Amino acid sequence: TQQISRMLTKLFQRARLEKPGQVDLRAAEFTLNLLAAMYDRSGTGYIKIRSAAAALIALSGDTLLAKYRAFFQFYAVPDGKVALITRSALRGLLTDLNQIPAIVGESCTLSCVEIATHDCFHGVLNSAIVEEKFLSWLRSEPAVLLWLPTCYRLSATAMVSHQARCR
């Protein structure tokens, strides 16, 4: 958690410079507390960097496609000239991401993760998939991650303004 705390402090310091007055001075502390609540429930002081990165990517303001590509980069393993995501890596990603809705009582069972993993690898003979297959599956909005595009759409519509007037 100390390493993540230092990284978050640097991250939010840069964000404050880029967007003065828009970033709370305690943002790093709040974010670390959220990550600890999601990934260190027993209070060991240990949070996997990859789990924290997955949560930060998911909660970022980036586009869905950028988030999906970042997930692949963090969880894929190199295989020669290409990177692949294995079934176990996908299980790890889905488990990590499902800690986000779980923090507000909307958890999914392990069977949901298994069903989603099976669905992603449906018709695949290899033990791992390439990025395009992974992205294609995520674009189909699997039920286990339906909260992610939903939250993205909600945040995107918050920025929409129109000139219509109500009577």
From TrEMBL:
One GO cellular component this record assigns the protein to is: synapse
Looking up InterPro entries in the UniProt record yields: EF-hand-dom_pair, EF-hand_dom_typ2, KCMF1/Dystrophin
Biological processes, Gene Ontology terms: synaptic signaling
Domain EF-hand: residue ranges: 65-154
Descriptive protein name: DYTN protein
Q: Which organism is it from?
A: Onychorhynchus coronatus
Please name the gene that encodes this protein. Answer: Dytn
